[in-house]
């Protein structure tokens, strides 16, 4: 175990203790405590702190949690190959666009649960119960404090104004986060407005899109551009990093929540649903209910500097330091339903 990792575990243990939770040793398959059965997750998430919460779930229920990690394409291919023989009871991934895709492929089943419906606001879950948001992330504008005054910033749409020519950084259009952001603009203002926005962003780009969200933040710090559109947890990771060089990257960069006057900042979720072929249906529902509970939410979301979905739980300290914001309350299922239209627009305006 690296020093960084052990520090993270110590920090998590402190958070758990502060919330009245105990850190328990990881159980091994076949323990006496496993007589309540098991539950298996195919997961796109991979954080050590998630495992500690699975241990806590086992302590509470006796249910053992198995996790298979991979990217969504790999996990979907595996589910399709395995068919009804699949051991997966739950599928976890990031972005509502992908959750909708899993639903449309017939890989999930609807779940009706009062605790889930109570803890997860309606716009952050599938209307038919096929998937539920587990953590939230906002797609924000970050800016260099020396070259941009936050009073110059307002909306995603305003980034297409002439004054931002050659100054805007954002990743490629093949990325689902940008597809979902564009889908949200289609839902709010229609396809023509969305196309104008995408074309205007391309016209103002500081460079041909390259790299992920962290690379856009680093490019702002390096002076390649002055503003970038990124998900909050990438900024939070740098700000809370154990590496001084990471913290230095964000020292001169501010976070701005756009579109506060009208629809609110674009928000997405990581989330999960019960697989269509789940063998441990009740255990799968019980784990989802635990992960959205007040007890687990702060720790679960905070593991990746994300916002809780459960409105009763506060954001962790790094996120809270940026202030509160108005979030778009668009039903996130619409992002998946408008994904194809968004991809078409990106192609039309030649957003690489
Ligand atoms: Fe991400």
The count of β-strands is 10
* Helical percentage: 40-55%
Total domain modules: 2
Indicate the radius of gyration in whole angstroms. 20 Å
CATH superfamily of the largest domain: Periplasmic binding protein-like II
Instruction: List low-confidence stretches.
Output: 1-34
How many helix segments? 15
Bound molecules: fe (ii) ion
What is the fold-level CATH name, i.e. the topology of the largest domain?
D-Maltodextrin-Binding Protein, domain 2
The portion of residues forming beta strands comes to 15-25%
Q: Which structural class matches the secondary elements?
A: alpha/beta
- Mean pLDDT across all residues, rounded? 91
Major beta sheet summary? 10 strands, mixed
Shape: globular
Give the name of the CATH architecture of the largest domain.
Answer: 3-Layer(aba) Sandwich
Order of helices and strands: HEHEHEHEHEEHHHEHHEEHHEHHH
């Amino acid at each position: 175990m690296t020093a960084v990792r052990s520090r993270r575990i110590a920090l998590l243990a402190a958070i758990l203790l502060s919330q009245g939770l105990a850190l328990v040793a990881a159980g091994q398959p076949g323990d006496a405590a496993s007589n309540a059965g098991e539950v298996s997750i195919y997961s796109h998430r991979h954080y050590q702190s998630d495992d500690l919460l699975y241990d806590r779930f086992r302590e509470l229920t006796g249910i053992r949690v198995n996790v298979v990690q991979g990217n969504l394409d790999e996990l979907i291919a595996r589910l399709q190959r395995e068919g009804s023989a699949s051991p997966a009871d739950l599928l976890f991934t990031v972005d509502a666009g992908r959750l909708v895709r899993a639903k449309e492929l017939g890989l999930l089943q609807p779940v009706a649960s009062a605790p889930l419906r109570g803890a997860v606001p309606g716009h952050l879950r599938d209307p038919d119960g096929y998937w539920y948001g587990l953590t939230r992330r906002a797609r924000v504008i970050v800016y260099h404090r020396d070259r941009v005054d936050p009073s110059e910033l307002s909306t995603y749409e305003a980034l297409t104004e002439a004054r931002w020519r050659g100054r805007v950084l954002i990743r490629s259009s093949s990325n689902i986060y940008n597809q979902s952001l564009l889908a949200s603009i289609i839902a709010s203002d229609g396809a023509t407005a969305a196309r104008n926005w995408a074309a205007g962003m391309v016209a103002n780009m500081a460079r041909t899109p390259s790299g992920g969200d962290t690379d856009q933040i680093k490019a702002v710090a390096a002076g390649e551009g002055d503003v970038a559109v990124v998900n909050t947890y990438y900024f939070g990771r740098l700000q809370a990093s154990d590496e001084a060089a990471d913290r230095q990257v964000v020292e001169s960069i501010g976070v701005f929540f756009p579109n506060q006057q009208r629809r609110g900042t674009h928000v997405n979720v990581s989330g999960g649903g019960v697989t269509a072929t789940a063998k441990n249906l009740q255990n799968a529902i019980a784990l989802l209910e635990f992960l959205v509970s007040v007890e687990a939410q702060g720790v679960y979301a905070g593991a990746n500097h994300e916002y809780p979905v459960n409105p009763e739980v506060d954001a962790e300290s790094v996120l809270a330091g940026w202030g509160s914001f108005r979030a778009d309350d668009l039903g996130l299922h619409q992002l998946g339903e408008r994904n194809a239209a968004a991809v078409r627009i990106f192609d039309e305006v030649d957003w690489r």
